[in-house]
Amino acid sequence: MRARKRRAMAGFAGAAFLHARVAEDLADRLEAIPRTFQRVLALGGGGLFSRAVRGRPELSARVGHIVEADVCGAHVTVDAERMPFAARAFDLAVSPLALHWVNDLPGAFVQLRRALSPDGLMLASLFGGETLHELRLALIEAESELTGGAGPRVAPFAGLQDVAHLLQHAGFALPAADRDVVTVRYADPMDLLADLRAMGETAALTERSPRALSRRILGRAFDIYRACFSDPDGRVRATFDIVTATGWAPHESQQQPLKPGGAKTRLADALGTREIGAGDAAFPSPKRPR
Hints:
It is built from eleven helices and seven strands. Strand 4, helix 5 and strand 5 form a beta-alpha-beta unit.
């Protein structure tokens, strides 16, 4: 992955429109949280999160030193599966579109949670399950048609519920996950591949099957792509499913779920209705036939 990112660095700025969108979204979310974060980790994103924060004076005043970390081209070079940070090192950890290439996503979430101080916040956006489904289907159909079988060519991505469960298992408090589905239109499928290469995302095409992707298969896949996923103006669609994970490092001040039987207000009182006992019928019983 590091070599792929290095190759992409020259063209990243011109193709990083999705990464910039995500960085701005993460900054939007932080603006709504009335907190100060003095020690901040930005994992991935090519510096776009720092730029988004600097463009917002009120937010910038609440965000302290940002440590930029990535597999290459950052202040700190890291492997997201073996992060070198001490426990409780940061008040905030953000990750714009970096964690979807981690082999051990559960482990990465655990490491991020440990790197947060108590009541510290993690915001991480990653590509979700529907990402590039058009390209995936076109490649599968083309390879099946020409060779009689198909291997996975587009990497599998975690779904929304998967991410939510992983946050919980990693020990985050108040875990949540939501998604933003972005449709990008291209003049031709080849333009999509050029963007993926410039973003450093080309492993979505080549690292999941032992058989080389021939020009014949790729050409047929493009034909299928144009036939199945084009709009009336001839442009083709590409879906990017962006899942954003939110979690807090546990702290005693956080809202805690009530223990069973610990509620102080009856649901019937809150709803303004009459409580029906276990022996009462919720609906009138049908009359017995005479």
